[in-house]
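Lab meeting, item 3. Inverse folding demo.
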């Protein structure tokens, strides 16, 4: 029994890790590990950024006019964004080296995808440009890394020098590098000594050796370039050209991406199912109606229980007024999230859904006289950028227990529903503030094609409260991705 178990484990490990690693190394299958140039070589640096040695390295590269490619660890980039920003601004390329420095052999395909996704998201937030290149820690690939559907070029190396060990010393290290100094070479070095098996101060020896190598390269007429430059015109690139041309986006990154839903762990998928099951019970208990079979919204008629809110007409929504309370259909939004290959695609689907659903809601309101008597449509959400485009005014929630509990609830929902919700909470916690969104029934019906003369108007005394509207301005420079930092509308409690 134990012998059979051992054999099965050996087979699984071989097909998942050993064999893919072997064929990638021996045959260069789906990896770039050497260029074809006679005058250019690539310097690549792993494991950074380091707060001490990476700035010194950038100074050295700038001194000799050399360009390099940095394969950064996501966690380190998160800690030192200014250094990553400097890399980008000085013309170096930035690649992915996982979020933490862990071998891909020890992780499932889904775990590796999460590592890559988190790191590319951090790099994009810092530089505004999505990375194209990926180097797995220790160059260890697994079967899923070599998938033809991968959006990244896997970059290995043609020479490494043991520079992570301080005892090698600068002289021996320089001698090793000079023996490999030629066109087409991809040199692997390390600008951080904090990873397992490395010496903390080893990069100091590497920097001293590298300066001597850069001086020698200039004398030989060799140029240190980025991986992208070395890859251009190479045999590897000619094989990838057709696919890249078909799938490359405007920002230079592949638009072909794994669905965001594949980033969810089994535990998180279980939480999502549990949460959505509870929502079905909630909708049944409170008799929520839906805007359509595939609609984004649920709604119900109820009395407003909050403090007075000013509408876009200058009128006021008072306590006791009839409102149509809106909820996002989180099941539908989760389905959109799971099937989307980028946040941009998700945002577009969301906007298209809202534009499709609001006219349907207007028709349903006209067919139900009691809905037409409502003073406003109302909800609360952490989606603070974008509702104005649909006619909703955004208002601050009054300080109090409701605001505190609503913020807690929506953050919990974001962490569960969104594939990178935990990361967004960590990065943008101070900006995720629930706000009320409200639009008068008259304005909503007029905007979505219904004759507003059918709407009763008994609000003269509301208008006396004030006619000047001070709405929360939409940020014209905000990205469409920022408009989707949460996926729920929570309403005032009964």
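The presenter then showed the designed sequence:
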């Amino acid at each position: 029994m134990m012998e059979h178990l051992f054999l099965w484990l050996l087979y699984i490990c071989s097909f998942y890790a050993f064999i893919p690693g072997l064929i990638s190394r021996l045959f260069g299958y789906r990896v770039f590990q050497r260029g074809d140039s006679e005058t250019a070589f690539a310097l690549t640096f792993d494991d950074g950024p380091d707060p001490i040695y990476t700035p010194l390295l950038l100074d050295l590269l700038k001194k000799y006019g050399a360009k390099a490619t940095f394969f950064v660890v996501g966690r380190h980039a998160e800690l030192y964004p200014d250094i990553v920003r400097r890399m980008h601004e000085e013309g170096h390329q930035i690649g992915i080296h996982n979020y933490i420095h862990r071998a891909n052999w020890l992780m499932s395909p889904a775990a590796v995808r999460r590592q890559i996704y988190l790191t590319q998201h951090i790099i994009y937030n810092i530089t505004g440009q999505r990375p194209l290149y990926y180097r797995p820690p220790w160059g260890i690939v697994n079967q899923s890394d070599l998938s033809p559907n991968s959006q990244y070029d896997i970059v290995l190396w043609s020479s490494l020098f043991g520079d992570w060990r301080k005892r090698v010393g600068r002289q021996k290290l320089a001698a090793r590098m000079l023996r490999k100094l030629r066109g087409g070479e991809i040199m692997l070095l390390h600008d951080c000594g904090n990873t397992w098996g490395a010496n903390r101060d080893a990069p100091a020896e590497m920097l001293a050796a590298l300066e001597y190598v850069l001086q020698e390269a200039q004398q030989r007429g060799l140029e240190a370039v980025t991986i992208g430059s070395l890859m251009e015109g190479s045999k590897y690139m000619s094989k990838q050209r057709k696919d890249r041309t078909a799938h490359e986006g405007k920002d230079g990154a592949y638009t072909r991406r794994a669905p965001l839903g594949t980033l969810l762990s089994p535990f998180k998928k279980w939480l999502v199912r549990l949460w959505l099951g509870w929502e079905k019970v909630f909708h049944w208990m409170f008799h929520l109606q839906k805007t359509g079979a595939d609609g984004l919204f649920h709604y119900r008629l109820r009395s407003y229980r909050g403090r007075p809110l000013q509408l876009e007409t200058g009128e006021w929504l008072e306590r006791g007024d009839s409102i149509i309370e809106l909820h996002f259909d989180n099941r539908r939004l989760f389905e959109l999230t799971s099937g989307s290959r980028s946040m941009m695609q998700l945002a577009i689907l969301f906007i298209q859904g809202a534009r499709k659903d609001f006219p349907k809601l207007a028709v349903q309101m006209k067919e139900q006289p009691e809905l037409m008597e409502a003073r406003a449509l109302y909800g609360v959400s952490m989606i603070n950028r974008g509702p104005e485009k649909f006619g909703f005014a955004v208002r601050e929630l009054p300080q109090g227990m409701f605001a505190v509990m609503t913020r807690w609830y929506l953050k919990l929902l974001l962490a569960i529903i969104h594939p990178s919700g935990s990361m967004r909470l960590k990065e943008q916690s101070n900006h995720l503030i629930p706000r009320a969104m409200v639009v008068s029934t008259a304005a909503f019906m007029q905007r979505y094609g219904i004759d507003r003369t059918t709407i009763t108007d008994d609000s003269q005394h509301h208008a006396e409260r004030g006619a000047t509207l001070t709405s929360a301005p939409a940020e014209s420079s905000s990205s469409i991705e920022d408009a989707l930092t949460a996926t729920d509308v929570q309403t005032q409690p009964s």
